[in-house]
Every structure is written in C-alpha cells, then in structure tokens.
Amino acid sequence: MPYLHQSLRPQPHPVPRDARTIHSSGRSFEELRQDCLQSSTLFEDADFPASNNSLFYSERPQVPFVWKRPGEIVENPEFILGGATRTDICQGELGDCWLLAAIASLTLNQKALARVVPQDQDFGSGYAGIFHFQFWQHSEWLDVVIDDRLPTFRDRLVFLHSADHNEFWSALLEKAYAKVPIQIQNASESEARTPFGLIKGHAYTVTGLDQVNFQGRKIKLIRVRNPWGQVEWNGRWSDSSLEWRSVNLEEQKRLGHSALDDGEFWMAFEDFKTHFDKVEICNLTPDALEDNALHRWEVTVHQGSWVRGSTAGGCRNFLNTFWTNPQIKLSLTEKDEGQDGCTFLAALMQKDRRKLKRFGANMLTIGYAIYQCPDKDQDKDGHLSRDFFRYNASLARSKTFINLREVSGRFQLPPGDYVLIPSTFEPHQEADFCLRIFSEKRAVTRDLDENTDIDLPEPPKPTPQEEETEEERQFRALFQRIAGEDMEVTAEELEYVLNAVLQKKTALKFKKLSLLSCKNIISLMDTSGNGKLEFEEFRVFWNKLKHWMSLFLQFDVDKSGTMSSYELRNSLKAAGFQLSGHLLQLIILRYADESLQLDFDDYLNCMVRLENASRVFQSLSVENKDFIHLNINEFIILTMNI
C-alpha cells in the first residue's frame, strides 16, 4: 500500500545476505523444527492448509486429491537422491513449465542451488515434517517454511515430481514456491506440437553449448531440455538423427549423446535461432555469471508506486499526466572498457500482481522511457515539468509496453545525465513497482521525487497603512460590523466574513469555506495566541489568500472551477512547496475527491496547513535546518495545533 507511513529520509537498498522468514508465527525454520522434535509431532503449516483452497482460487481439480507425506507414499523417502540434477524435474498436472525450466537451470549451478535448497534437511534423524526453501524476490531473500504434505491421486504425486519416485526435493520446492507471495495458477498451456516435435508457447531449459566435428567442419550445437521429461526435437542433431553417424563414439560420449526419451536433446544452433523467439538469462546477484569473471555489474534498486491522482500518469500518449509519473535520475560517468558509451540494463517489475490476481488484479501493461536531462541543474529544479516532455523526445525506451511481470532492456548511451520514467500504459492505474539499474561501470541514480524543499518568504508583520484602498475600507467596515469594538473575529465569525466575500468569485467552484478551514487560518495567522484574528492579521492573510486564489485559477486548466490533483504539484511548487512524491500522495488522498478534483475550500485548507507546518518547523529547527527533536508531548501538541 502506498498510503502507509514511510520514512521521508532517503533509504539505501542493500543486497541482504540473510533470508527473511515468512511465516505467520514469526519463528524461524530451526525454531519450528525444534519445537516439533521436542513434542514428537509432525509440523502442520497453518499458512498452507492441506486443502484445495491452498492451490486454486478460480477452479477445482477434476479428481479428488489426497494429501500425504512422503513416508506415506513410499517406504524409504529421500530428500535428494544421488545429487540434485535436471532429470529430477518432471512436470505434473500444473501448467508451470516456466517454473520447471528455471528449476532445471538452477541444478546446473550447484552454488546457487544450495542457496535455494538448503542442505540442512532430510528424512533422517532430524525429520519433523518441516522443510524450508529460499527465494529471491524484490531484492531480498525469503526463507519459506512448509510442511511436507503433498497432493496425490492414487498414491502418485499430482504435480512436479522426480524421475525417481522416492526423491522429493523438487516436489517440496514447487510447494514452497506456491506459498511465496505470488500465485502459481494452471496456465492451461497450449500443447500445439510443431512437425519438428517442439511445443508452441512452451518453456525449455538450455543445458549446454558445444561444438562438434562434422564432415571436416565445426558445427555449433545447443542442448535443450523439455521439463515434461519427454517429447523431443526430431530435426537435425536430434537423438536419432543421421548426423550422429558421422560423429565418432568418443565424441558422442563426451557430449553425452543418447537416444533416451528423457526430454533432453541436441540441436544445431542455427535451428535453435529459427525455432525459438527468446532466451532469458537470470543472475541471482549483480555479479557476473562466474565468480572469477573480470566483469561485475553495479546495481541500484528503486521501490516506488503508481498512485491514482498523483503518480499514475500513464505513458507519453497522455501528455497532461505523463510528467507526474515517478522520475529517476541516472548519471552515467564512465565509459565501458574500449567503448564510446556506457552500458546499462533497466528492469522494471510490477510487484505482487500474481498474488492479487485472486482479487481481480491482472498484470498491468508497463514500460519506461529515458530522456536526456536538460542543461540546467536538476538537483535544484527537481521533477521535470509537462512542457519538458512536450518539446523533448525520448532517447531510449523499453522495446514495448506489455502486460508482463517484468520489462527489461539493455542500452548504451554516452556519459551524461538522464531521467528514466517508469509508467503504466494507461493513466490512473495503481501498482507498486521495483526498478533495477544494472551498469558495467558505476552509475549514480536518484529519485527526483524524494526531496521536500520549502521556500517561503518571511511573513510580513501586520502594520497599519497610512492610506487604505477601497477594498480594504469595505473589508474594515464588514470586519468591524462582525467583530465589534475589539476588532477581533472568532473562527465562526471569520467563516461568515470570508464566505460573504468569496461568494462573489464566480470562477471558484465550492459551496462555502468550511469552519475547519477558518480554524486552520486562525492557527496560521494568530500571533497573539488568543484564538482570534485581529484586523491587521486578517489583512496580511487576505493578501496571501489573493495569491492562492490566483494560483488556483491559473492551474485550473479546464476552467471548471476545480483543480485536477495532477496539477496540484505545479500549483504547490509555484507557492514555494516542492514536495516529495510520497508526501504529495498523502495530500491528494486527504484533499481530492473521488473524481481526483479539489475545490477551492480543499485547496485553501491544504495551503494553510502546509504553510503552518512549514512555519512551525522553521521556528523549531534553529540548530539544524533538516531535523527537529521533540518528545511525545511536544509532538502531539504540535500536530493538534496544525
């Protein structure tokens, strides 16, 4: 939720080494296991009951599932039998080939596999029906605790299973992944088979690359695996193809060639490029693929939100709101080795959409655009305005806006300052996102929306003027008639005075100023502390009010008498308030209506409270202009007085 309180201080985004346990008990895997061992009970995970509701939200299985522990399925269950290999991955009834292909790839990197599948668990003396696995999500490791009850039908595992029926690490890993705050749902995967034996729309795993001597020349081969554990390529260099007859047995043995229908096969690299559209390469950390590689990625992470009415501006097609999206400044300072430009990857991920799917939230169509920073100092000017995007084209952008969980691209730009704008395609669509920037050389990034800067003029002291204007004479007469001889008005009397005057302003659309607004005005302007407003204090406020009315009408772009919440940022900036994106979201949540509009009473209340809070902060921040120190009593008094 973007509306919860967040620290306004910039927060670093470290890459944590320890995993965060996600279990409702708040206890770790080892603590839960020890409890079970001491009480001689098998763990039952209350967060993932052994029922259909844990697996499905929009459909029901065609056959009844019976949940059993591995020891109830086979006589001698093993967690890992003879090492975890890609042949341990056989797809079940769930259409999650994308997950199984990723798990199969993981078995090729034993160091990474040991992080995801901890080795401190088995069915031996420490067995208590509890297991745990670790997953990398949104720049942190999650330690997921599960029990080992698995859905079966006729004593066979329904979903992912190993080729060895007494090995269970892969089945338990799939269950743990189903518990992560995302949702695995049957993809109803297409089984349209091509004449060459490949499955359309199917995810495969690349398990090897090599070259083979064939008729006096080198042929590039690639080894691919179908997570089904069967159904293979039948073209050139397939298991039984004629090409292998021209390869000596020693070479075939080196390549591990066999004619088994195990789902794994070789094919010519040229055929691979013809029949496959996309290859996904995943790094668990910013490091290169090999620990001893010379090149390492530098990474920065930005967590943000698209919030309706403030930061959900949509793509560049919607110029009036596009500029309100979050803006990330990217400074590229060093060229790549032997290159003229700076290489970086930008990966934009929408968070928790699969988890929210059961509530009707589908994947949003997302993407980003990259612009050259203007010459003037961005640290001073902050958020780029609508006019900038009106007259400047993007230098780079995501390949397309698409409804995927993550959109990424690789770019090379000259050294300089750039601004990256992540957005949904349509405006007013809400979601949380994670933006990661990977660069070959160190790059500096900063959220242009993170700073709050207040620039208010010194408040003028009420002083009597030698000559009054006609407007002031009318005000004085009205003020004296309402206030009486002491020439001071209460909040109720101020409400009457202001509404009597403002009702004549036909360009302003509002029923009347509220009593709350008038109380806030007195809190701002009352220098004597008696809860009333003297005429000289009122006169100073009236000049301030005229300035705010002018700004309101200026940023009422459609002349409707109300202001769009998307225009509030510019209006506040013109009044001296440059606010962080999160603070702006809170203000819009409080003051805008369901149509994302502010009438003048809402706008005035907002301006008065902002200035009051700013003045109070300035008066208290004597030693340090960025921070003040309050105890609980002082803090509550302060908040009740603003």
Automatic annotation (TrEMBL):
UniProt superkingdom: Eukaryota
Catalytic residues of the enzyme: C97, H202, N226
Keyword Hydrolase carried by entry: yes
PROSITE patterns: CALPAIN_CAT (PS50203), EF_HAND_1 (PS00018), EF_HAND_2 (PS50222), THIOL_PROTEASE_CYS (PS00139)
GO biological process terms on file: proteolysis
Keywords: Calcium, Hydrolase, Metal-binding, Protease, Repeat, Thiol protease
GO molecular function: calcium ion binding; calcium-dependent cysteine-type endopeptidase activity
Family annotation (SMART domains): calpain_III, CysPc, EFh
Sequence ranges assigned to domain Calpain catalytic in this UniProt record: 42-285
Gene3D superfamilies xrefs: 2.60.120.380, Cysteine proteinases, EF-hand
Record's GO cellular component terms: cytoplasm
Pfam assignment, any one: Calpain_III
UniProt-listed InterPro entries: C2_III (IPR033883), Calpain_cysteine_protease (IPR022684), Calpain_domain_III (IPR022682), Calpain_III (IPR022683), Calpain_III_sf (IPR036213), EF-hand-dom_pair (IPR011992), EF_Hand_1_Ca_BS (IPR018247), EF_hand_dom (IPR002048)
Disordered, as annotated region: 1-21, 449-472
EF-hand domain segment(s): 543-578
Function: Calcium-regulated non-lysosomal thiol-protease.
Family membership: Belongs to the peptidase C2 family.
Protein name in UniProt: Calpain-9
Organism (species): Cricetulus griseus (Chinese hamster)
